[in-house]
TrEMBL record:
Protein name per Swiss-Prot or TrEMBL: Ice-binding protein C-terminal domain-containing protein
TM region positions: none
Native species: Microcystis aeruginosa PCC 9432
Matches recorded under InterPro entries: Ice-binding_C
NCBIfam families for this protein: PEP_CTERM
Amino acid sequence: MKTLTTIKKLSMTAAGATFVALGVTFAHTTAANAAIVALDDSNSWVSPGTNTLTNLGFNMVTVPDPSLAAFTNVTTLSSPLGNLTFTPSVNYRKIGSGWTSWSHGYTGEVYYSNGATSIQIDLPASIAAFDLYVEPDPFNIFNITVTAQNGTTTSLTQPVNGNAGAKYFGFYGTGGDLIDKITVSSSVGFAVGQLRLAKPVPEPASVLGLLTIGVLGAGSVLKRKLK
């Protein structure tokens, strides 16, 4: 019985060590592959393809409508995941009430840049995915660039029609990278709307860590039973 107990103990120890080693390997791999990936309008959740943020595993949370009076300047928006801060402030509008058009039938709130050609949105802590729609103020086509930043920087530029042509811009972090700020810029004023954000998806290393704890715990139970 003592020999059997020793074998069981060694077997469980080896299994635990294997899972720990795998977890460390995954952690190093994900850190080395840290990046922010951009998704263009073809990956919008409105006309879902295979590469939407939801399909990639992110639980996207919509920034709720603060229900302000039209033309109110906004510096901070509250969301279930924390506050978003705008620099400079933006102006609260509704489609059909202060902002003429959008796209895909949306009739909710948008935030006008007040004529500024660039705004920065500071996000809450630990945000791994973010998306929004943007439309230029003039009724014509203009390039709009959205940049996501943290440890790395990724930009996406798309031509957007100011006449009912709002387009989707999405970003997500890989390898443990997060997004702490978004910059939207163009040669003209614009509005942003339909803002969503998400916390990180659990990395493989985290899952392996839980498995390791489970294996070591099982080994401890077996050792007690075999005494």
